[in-house]
Amino acid sequence: MTEHPHEIRLRVNGVPHTLRVPARRLLSDCLRHDLGLTGTHVGCEHGVCGACTVLLDGLPVRSCLMLAVGAARHSDITTVEGLAGPDGSLHPVQRAFGECHALQCGFCTPGFLTLVASHLEDNPDPTEAEARDAISGNLCRCTGYQNIVAAVLRAAELRREAPPAGERRAAGGVPGDAGGPA
Description:
two-stranded antiparallel sheet, alpha+beta, iron, 2 domains, Ubiquitin-like (UB roll), DNA polymerase, domain 1, metal-binding, about 15% strand, 2Fe-2S-bd, single chain, iron-sulfur, disordered C terminus, 5 strands, (2Fe-2S)-binding protein
């Protein structure tokens, strides 16, 4: 039986796309293979690790658990590439992860970056305990989480130092500025 493709419209990092995808195409595969946005990493493929986390209408979701046709009902998808500003300026979370050495192999980093960016929208001044709780659903096998927690707190500081307009949630960021290997 041949699966007929579905035409969908997605707005990813501020850019509209019209695609033809099979009904069972995962959002993570659509982003990576159809749109070439390889910053979204696929780890466990069960929604457990968080490496594939993207923002759907500003909220973190596991893109390996969502079908691309289901994402078409939403107005905005932001991947790690979309966090940076149109001019290439790094989002405060990206800056903080670099400053705090909150990555090692980088595989989990895109999921952490999108998750933390969303968390700081809701809680712009987290305590250390709140930062730990916020990242508790994402897995990292390298860092031991100490520097990731420090980066969450540092990102909150950087946000307070810069005007909110400096943040880009879906402003059409610079592809390839993923914060980790593809």
